[in-house]
Every structure is written in C-alpha cells, then in structure tokens.
Amino acid sequence: MESSGTVAEIRKEEGNLRYEYFIPMADPKTVLLIDCWKDQQAIDRHHASPMMEKIAELRAKYDLHMRVERYVSDEDGIPEADSRFIKE
Question: How far apart are CA 53 and CA 48, in angstroms?
C-alpha cells in the first residue's frame, strides 16, 4: 500500500483526515489500519472510488484478510470521568 503510492492517493481524497498503518509489537503478522474520515459521505465516496479497486487487487495479490471494527471519536471531548486517566 505504501510503496505502490496507494496510501498517498487515499490521503489526498476529499474528507480523509487520517490513514495510517501500525504493526502490533505482540503480533508482527498483523497490520492495523486507522483511517478517519470527515463524515459518512466521505467514507462512501472513498468506498466508491477507484482506490478501492487498487486495494482489492493488493489484498488478492498478497492473500490479505481483514476484520473491521468501527470506533467513534469523542468529538465533544473526553468525559470528565475518563479525563483523569489521560496525561497530555
């Protein structure tokens, strides 16, 4: 994804706020993708874009499997009960 230039193109898409890969220290065979989009419409445009075809080709080429988990940002701030555990 990185060396093919696909990631750079995805990061340029309208509404993309973040697109990064991470490798867990305890499981180097797993890659975690964190992507963040402005809104659902931006995600929908991304899913309908030519980038998804490139991604599908790379997944097939390297026999990559995926699991998806969706998280929602605390846009209105961290709840007070949780903020005492966070050091900025």
Answer: 9
Distance CA 18, CA 37 (A): 7
DSSP letter assigned to residue 19:
E
Three-state SS for 65? coil
Distance between CA 9 and CA 3 in Å, rounded? 12
The pLDDT tens digits of the residues spanning 1-27 come to 888 888 999 999 999 999 999 999 999
Instruction: Give me the amino acid identity at 71.
Output: Y
**What is the pTM (predicted TM-score) of this model?**
0.78
Distance (Å, rounded) from C-alpha 73 to C-alpha 67? 19
